[in-house]
Write a structure and sequence with these properties.
Layout: E1 4-9, H1 14-17, H2 31-46, E2 53-56, H3 60-72, E3 80-82, H4 99-106, H5 108-116, H6 128-148, E4 152-157, H7 159-170, H8 174-177, E5 188-192, E6 198-203
Parallel strand pairs: 1-4, 2-3, 2-4
Antiparallel strand pairs: 1-5, 5-6
Length: 205
Amino acid sequence: MSGTLVLVRHGQSEWNLKNLFTGWRDVDLTDQGREEARAGAEKLKARGVTFDIAFTSALQRAQKTCQIILDVLGQSGLETIRNQALNERDYGDLSGLNKDDARAKWGEEQVHIWRRSYDVQPPGGESLKDTGARVWPYYMHDMQPHVLRGGTVLVAAHGNSLRALIMALEGKSGEEIVKLELATGVPIVYRLNADSTVKSKDVLD
């Protein structure tokens, strides 16, 4: 028996628009972000996808993306579990700073290392490896069992929490995963084999 796992990065947030480090700061979607979520949902609807359960983070930009998708699919009341294990990477002291200002303060190279290395933490924050350390157990214990029972599971989360999840699903290295770009609002549909390996992957862009 194989199930389906659908990953969606939240639509554009207010701080994405302003080029700010967001992390665990709880900012809302922009109008464009809501449209991105709706567009992604329409692509799922066109494929006839419906969900058995949904998971999202403790942050409203992911929660609202999740709800928009379920509303479009006519599944507004679906069981939805919120957990901070799926939160964006915590950018620590960088949170709330404009990325250009951060480059001016610490230098282009240092900010690039913080943003795009696998195991280097920004001041007071998490590396992508740290983010994975909370995402992976949560996936294994709480989400994967639904998929392996043949269910269809929605995960609406963030760029880095989803990178960590994709790293585990696809067996990517730290060097490979930091180069992966995830578009906002675009569903990634995985079909899993009974042994939890990936049977197929379809990006609905």
